């Protein structure tokens, strides 16, 4: 059973990827939020470079495109998070983050560090599995569709973050309901869900063992549940901040919370989520 489950997995590359993630996400020991923000973004970018280096002789147009998207995703996210922390509109959240970090014990930080590092490796594993198959001379026909979904998700998330940053710079105390936010209340989270779904789809024809399906599947399910939890947490925070405004109450009753056109307006009662 174990041979069937773990056959043909690229253990050396997975191990190197995990070590790289542990090194970069160690930023979180300075402030816990960085385990899941700066450490996350910059690791995804670094991992794309690592994969390109390890499998440079197997690279094709679609494999390069996938790695470029992973690199762009991580670099953009890291840069956005740094910029957000410098914004005056984020001052209250930044102070709360520092207070939370100071109250978390070392063993808990260690557990977060190891668990999120393993998760990030799993999330990006479809790209690795595709490279492994290409290096063995096998075709990966699922790549174009997956890369297209990844591109759509990245563009959506980047545009949503840009729109919100511009709005908050001019209106730090108001809630965002313009642009993409007039269609869905958490377009950036939806974009991220789409991006990682695309990554999983890209590797569909490269999962040659139950272990590969398990690793890639865990990565996808976990990030989707994290995005659900993030949207739920944002809903609760915004309700506390803006719930007394009639315009906000009208907005949340009309605009779906996470997926455009899906008439789901609240995640308050959601019981299955992460984060």
What labels would you give this structure?
275 residues; 10 helices; 69% helix; mainly alpha; 0% strand; single chain
Task: Give a summary of the structure in a few sentences.
With 275 residues, the chain is an all-alpha fold. The chain contains ten helices and no strands. 69% of the residues lie in helices and 0% in strands.
β-strand amount = under 5%
Mean pLDDT: 93
Helix content range of the residues, please?
55-70%
The profile of the biggest β sheet is:
none
State the order of secondary-structure elements, H for helix, E for strand: HHHHHHHHHH
* Poorly predicted runs: none
Query: Total number of helical segments?
Result: 10
The count of strands amounts to 0
**What sort of overall outline do the alpha carbons produce when their principal axes are compared?**
globular
Question: Could you say how many structural domains there are in total?
Answer: 1
Class by alpha and beta content: mainly alpha
Q: Indicate the radius of gyration in whole angstroms.
A: 19 Å
Euclidean distance between termini CA atoms: 33 Å
Write up what this structure looks like.
The chain is an all-alpha fold. The chain has one domain. The chain is built from ten helices and no strands. The radius of gyration is 19 Å and the shape is globular. It starts with a helix and ends in a 21-residue tail after the last helix. The model has no long low-confidence stretch (mean pLDDT 93).
């Amino acid at each position: 059973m174990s041979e069937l489950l773990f056959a043909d997995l690229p253990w050396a590359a997975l191990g190197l990827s995990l070590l790289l993630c542990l090194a970069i996400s160690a930023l979180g020991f300075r402030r816990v939020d960085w385990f899941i923000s700066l450490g996350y973004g910059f690791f995804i970018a670094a991992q794309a470079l690592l994969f390109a280096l390890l499998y440079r002789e197997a690279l094709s147009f679609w494999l390069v495109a996938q790695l470029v998207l992973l690199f762009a995703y991580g670099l953009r996210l890291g840069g956005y998070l740094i910029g957000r922390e410098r914004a005056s509109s984020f001052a209250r959240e930044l102070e709360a983050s520092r207070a939370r970090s100071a109250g978390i014990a070392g063993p808990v930080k260690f557990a977060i560090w190891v668990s999120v590092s393993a998760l990030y490796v799993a999330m990006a594993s479809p790209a690795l599995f595709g490279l492994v198959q290409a290096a063995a001379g096998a075709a990966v026909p699922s790549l174009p569709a997956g890369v297209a979904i990844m591109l759509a998700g990245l563009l959506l998330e980047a545009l949503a973050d840009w729109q919100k940053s511009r709005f908050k710079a001019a209106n730090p105390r108001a809630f965002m309901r313009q642009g993409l936010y007039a269609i869905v209340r958490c377009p950036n989270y939806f974009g991220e869900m789409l991006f990682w779904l695309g990554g999983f789809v890209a590797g569909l024809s490269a999962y040659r063992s139950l272990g590969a399906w398990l690793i890639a599947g865990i990565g996808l399910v976990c990030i989707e549940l994290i995005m659900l939890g993030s949207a739920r947490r944002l809903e609760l925070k915004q309700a506390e901040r803006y719930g007394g405004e009639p315009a906000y109450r009208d907005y949340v009753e009309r605009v779906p919370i996470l997926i455009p056109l899906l008439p789901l307006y609240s995640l308050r009662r959601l019981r299955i989520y992460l984060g």
